[in-house]
Amino acid sequence: MAHLTICVPTRNRQRYCIETIRAIATSEVLDIEVLVADNSDDETQLSSFFENEFDDARFRLLPPQDQVLSMVDNWERAMENATGKWVTFIGDDDYIDPRASDLIKRYERIHVDVEAVGWSRMSYNWPDNRPSDTMATVPAGSSTLVANKVQLENFLFRWTEGKNRPSSGFGVYHGAASRKLMERIKARFGNRYFEHPNVDYDSSCKVTAEARKLVTCQRPFSILGACSSSNSAGLHSQKTMHERTKTFMQETKTGVPVEHPDFPFPLSDNALSVCVSVAHTTYWFCKKYNIDLTGFGENFVKAAMEECAFSRDSAEYERKVDAFKRGFSLWENGRWVSHFQPALYDPNRLAFRHVSGVINDVIYFWEQKVKAKTPGEFYKFSERALMPVEHILAGRRSFTT
Amino acid sequence: MTALSICIPTRNRQIYAMDAITHLLKSRRQEFEILVADNSDDAEVLATFCKSIDDPRLRLMPPEDAPLSMPDNWERMIPEARGSWISIIGDDDYLDPELCEVLRLAAKIAPKVESISWGRSYYIWPEARTSTEITTLPVPSNLRGYDQKELMKRLFFWEEAADRPACPFGIYHGAVKRELLERIRETFSGRYFEHGNVDYDNICKTVMLSGGFLLWERPLSVFGACSQSNSIGLRNREIGKERTKVVLAESKFGFEAEGFPFSPDLGIAASIGHTIEHFKQRYGIDLSGWEENFIRACAKDCESSFDRQEFNARKEAYGAAIESWRGKKAKKMFKPEYKFRPDVPPFRGTADGILYFDMDMGETASAAEFYEMIDAMLFPVHLLESRLA
Question: Is there a contact between A65 and A38 (Cβ–Cβ < 8 Å)?
Answer without folding.
Answer: no
